[in-house]
């Protein structure tokens, strides 16, 4: 999804392989990005563009007139089955395809408001009712949605507004007496019921708002770094010819301390795994739920009530404000290019959006820099980027360094040595031009140049909306985009979120980390990698926060993990990945330590002896480590048994989701028994089985059994990821939920405390799970010890 779709990739690689050797050499040995771009661009033929367009057309990104009724119908089916979440998403899809101010769009909004109402999302429901009315909801259906509106207002305790709405409704009815009587009665009955509900709620008002405000205050950096806004004053920027830029601690740092808080310079929502739908297929419309249906395309917030762009169906937002901002900043240019951008991949999209955003900074400065770039022969080497040359024709003319060459201390910093989240910093991230393969550079250059031509074509159709500077400098922007594309392989930051699918009550939810978007964070980019990092990164909306995950001594380097973490990947695999993607040999302590004892794998991958349970050792043939035992077995045999188990556990998970709990448990217990004969008790596969068993028992309502199994899974997680890892935090959270649901009060309080402690270090106080833990805690502390059974 980062790179262009496979069809385009293999098409371009083929094209490359058919180029005469002399042309390949010219591009391979070109010493500037400008030359790479211009040579590759000149090879882009009309038939290539035609092929690319045919691929782009596979994505339905426009408004499809037949889609809204289809999705509304499908949504209604889900609604009838009481799957309100599913219905909401389908109505949203319908909305995204409907034209503004059409019956389609207003009906979809109204239906979505009903689904949201049943999901207890009253604020969102109210907004959708307003939207339905704004887009011309039929007069005859008005009483229905108005009634819903009153219900929402009353539930939210906004009684005055509710009263006003009722009076408006009454006077409306007075004008049309035929409707009145029956409607009034329903209204009155509902009103009575709802008023009682409000009174109950008023008695329950908790003190959460206060804790929330405090939480957001804690989200701020205690003391901001003067040189690097967005970083804490506990760190400092250093530069080393070998390591490049990096951050060190200027004082002792405690676990949980916030070190960086940075909003993405640019981010692009990952649309989700969605292969293009090909023409003439039976299934016309896609009913699958993707990231694009659930998260705002600009701010990445989760939302069930998206508002689509007026011009396309693929860009959806959390609010009208977000839509407008995105439109002004970049979407006005991106809107007609949806299919193309999906075909060319996220990196290309980020490259375009970065240059579009650059226009809002000092544009003349940016263009000047690009012109330097265009003429600079040595721009691939990082040293040359330190030089900021000020040509005498500088349109600003106020520069104090007129005509002189000034060397800034660290690339990406301004003349005062300040490093900020801006285009200048993004521009100076390393493209590693010399490390990428010639084919890859060709693919990027041709893709960018195809994008530029489509932009040009779009511009010439509406010249009035395009700033003249952009048009004349399009080629310079093309070079800049190529640079960004090459930078992204090493500098793209995945924006992740913890997703807890359909958190049904009374069951252990299986949270998983999902990749929401890809972005560029110039300050976060200053951190070097370690396979066993001393920080932890998390995201709220488009803001990244980095916290110390352990004690960091004064003078120590601040490190984060680029992906290959020691608890998730073996040393050889990790080092290979870091070399091929990030172009360096990892020298982190974990790698140093593990490099020399590669023969014995980690405990969570260990096989053990069937007879005496001692760990097995060796290469293709494994033998028992115990001296008194002579057992030996082939590795291939054990691997095939492991694969077999994996398959069965997968099957058990399917049974679990389809509600066949007893069968799932039987299968898992069988697997568990099987595993005992050849896997160590700390094998990650064993952990997975225990986790699945815990889920199954929780779904049956057997809290005790569920907790027993979850505690076993917890042990495996602890061995693999460490006692204060974020993975451990999520497991403890699940365990706390179990004890809470099972009214095991002392165990619940104890586990809540442990979970809170671990999660706080990684996420800080405004994390969802921490908020929930606090709610559980205050509920347990406030409620009388016996909450079961009717009181007499
Ligand atoms: Zn938003
Ligand atoms: Zn659009
Ligand atoms: Zn390493
Ligand atoms: Zn043995």
Characteristics of this structure?
792 residues, mainly alpha, Serine Threonine Protein Phosphatase 5, Tetratricopeptide repeat, Beta-clip-like, 3-stranded antiparallel beta sheet, 30 helices, 9% strand, globular, binds zinc ion, Znf_MYND, cytoplasm, zinc ion binding
In short, what is this structure?
Helices cover 53% and strands 9% of the residues. With 792 residues, the protein is mainly alpha-helical.
Ligands bound, unique: zinc ion
Structural class: mainly alpha
Q: Could you give me the name of the CATH homologous superfamily of the domain at 66-202?
A: Tetratricopeptide repeat domain
Q: What is the helical fraction, as a range of percent?
A: 40-55%
The residue ranges in which pLDDT falls below 50 over 5 or more consecutive positions are 204-217, 377-408, 502-507, 785-792
Major sheet details: 3 strands, antiparallel
Architecture (CATH level 2) name of the domain at 66-202: Alpha Horseshoe
CATH domain fold name of the domain at 66-202: Serine Threonine Protein Phosphatase 5, Tetratricopeptide repeat
CATH class of the domain at 66-202: Mainly Alpha
**Rg over alpha carbons:** 30 Å
Approximate shape = globular
Strand order of the largest sheet: 3-13-12
- Number of helical stretches of at least 4 residues: 30
Mean pLDDT: 82
| SS strand fraction | 5-15%
- In total, the number of strands is 17
């Amino acid at each position: 999804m980062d790179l262009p779709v496979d069809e385009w990739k293999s098409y371009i690689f083929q094209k490359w392989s058919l180029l005469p050797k002399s042309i390949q050499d010219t591009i391979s040995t070109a010493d500037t990005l400008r030359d790479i771009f211009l040579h590759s661009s000149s090879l882009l033929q009309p038939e290539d563009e035609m092929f690319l367009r045919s691929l782009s057309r596979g994505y339905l990104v426009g408004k499809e007139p037949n889609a809204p009724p289809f999705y509304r119908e499908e949504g209604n089916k889900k609604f009838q089955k009481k799957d309100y979440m599913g219905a909401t998403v389908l109505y949203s899809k319908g909305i995204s395809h409907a034209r503004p101010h059409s019956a389609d769009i207003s009906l979809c909004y109204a239906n979505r408001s009903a689904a949201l109402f049943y999901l207890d999302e009253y604020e969102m429901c109210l907004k959708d009712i307003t939207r339905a009315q704004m887009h011309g909801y039929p007069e005859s259906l008005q009483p229905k949605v108005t009634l819903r509106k009153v219900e929402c207002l009353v539930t939210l305790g906004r009684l005055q507004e509710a009263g006003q709405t009722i009076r408006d409704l009454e006077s409306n009815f007075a004008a049309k007496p035929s409707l009145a009587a029956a409607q009034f009665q329903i209204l009155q009955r509902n009103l009575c019921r709802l008023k009682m509900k409000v009174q109950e709620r008023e008695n329950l008002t908790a003190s959460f708002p206060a804790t929330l405000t405090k939480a957001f205050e804690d989200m701020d950096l205690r003391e901001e770094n003067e040189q690097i806004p967005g970083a804490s004053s506990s760190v400092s920027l250093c530069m080393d010819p070998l390591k490049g830029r990096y951050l060190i601690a200027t004082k002792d740092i405690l676990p949980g301390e916030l070190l960086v808080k940075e909003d993405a310079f640019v981010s692009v929502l990952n649309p989700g795994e969605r292969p293009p739908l090909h023409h003439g297929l039976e299934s016309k419309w896609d009913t699958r739920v993707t990231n694009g249906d659930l998260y705002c395309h600009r701010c990445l917030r989760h939302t069930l009530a998206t508002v689509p762009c007026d011009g396309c169906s693929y860009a959806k937002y959390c609010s009208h404000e977000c839509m407008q901002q995105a439109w002004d900043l970049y979407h006005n240019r991106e809107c007609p290019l949806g299919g193309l951008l999906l075909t060319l991949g996220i990196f290309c999209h980020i490259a375009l959006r970065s240059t579009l955003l650059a226009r809002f900074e000092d544009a003349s400065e940016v263009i000047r820099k690009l012109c330097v770039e265009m003429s600079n022969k040595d721009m691939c080497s990082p040293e040359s980027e330190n030089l900021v040359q000020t040509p005498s024709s500088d349109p600003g003319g106020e520069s104090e360094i007129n005509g002189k060459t000034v060397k800034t201390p660290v690339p990406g910093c301004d003349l005062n040595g300040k490093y900020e989240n801006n285009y200048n910093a993004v521009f100076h991230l390393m493209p590693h031009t010399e490390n990428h393969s010639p084919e890859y550079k060709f693919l990027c250059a041709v893709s960018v140049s195809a994008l530029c031509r489509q932009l040009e074509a779009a511009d010439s159709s509406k010249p009035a909306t395009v700033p003249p500077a952009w048009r004349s400098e399009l080629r310079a922007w093309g070079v800049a985009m190529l640079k960004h594309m090459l930078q992204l392989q090493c500098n793209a930051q995945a924006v992740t979120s913890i997703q807890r699918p359909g958190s049904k009550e009374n069951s252990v939810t299986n949270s998983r980390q999902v990749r929401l978007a890809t972005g560029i964070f110039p300050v976060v980019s200053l951190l070097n990698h370690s396979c066993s990092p001393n920080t932890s990164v998390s995201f709220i909306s488009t803001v990244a926060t980095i916290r110390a995950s352990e004690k960091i001594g004064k003078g120590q380097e601040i490190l984060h993990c680029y992906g290959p973490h020691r608890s998730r990947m073996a040393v050889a695999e990790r080092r290979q990945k870091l070399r091929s993607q990030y172009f360096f040999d990892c020298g982190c302590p974990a790698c140093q330590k593990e490099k020399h004892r590669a023969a014995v794998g980690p405990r969570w991958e260990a096989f053990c002896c069937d007879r005496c349970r001692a760990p097995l050792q060796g290469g293709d043939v494994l033998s028992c480590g115990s001296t008194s035992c002579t057992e030996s077995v082939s590795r291939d045999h054990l691997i095939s048994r492991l694969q077999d188990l994996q398959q069965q556990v997968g099957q058990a998970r399917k049974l679990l989701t389809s509600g066949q709990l007893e069968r799932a448990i039987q299968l898992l217990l069988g697997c568990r028994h099987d595993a005992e004969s050849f896997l160590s008790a700390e094998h990650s596969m064993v952990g997975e089985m225990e986790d699945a068993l815990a889920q199954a028992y929780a779904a049956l309502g057997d809290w005790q059994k569920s907790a027993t199994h979850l505690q076993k899974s917890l042990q495996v997680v602890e061995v693999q990821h460490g006692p204060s890892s974020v993975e451990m935090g999520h497991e403890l959270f699940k365990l706390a939920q179990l004890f809470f649901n099972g009214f095991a009060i002392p165990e619940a309080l104890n586990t809540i405390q442990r979970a809170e402690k671990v999660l706080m270090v990684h996420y800080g106080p405004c994390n969802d799970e921490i908020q929930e833990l606090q709610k559980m805690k205050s509920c347990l502390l406030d409620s009388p010890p016996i909450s079961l059974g009717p009181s007499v």
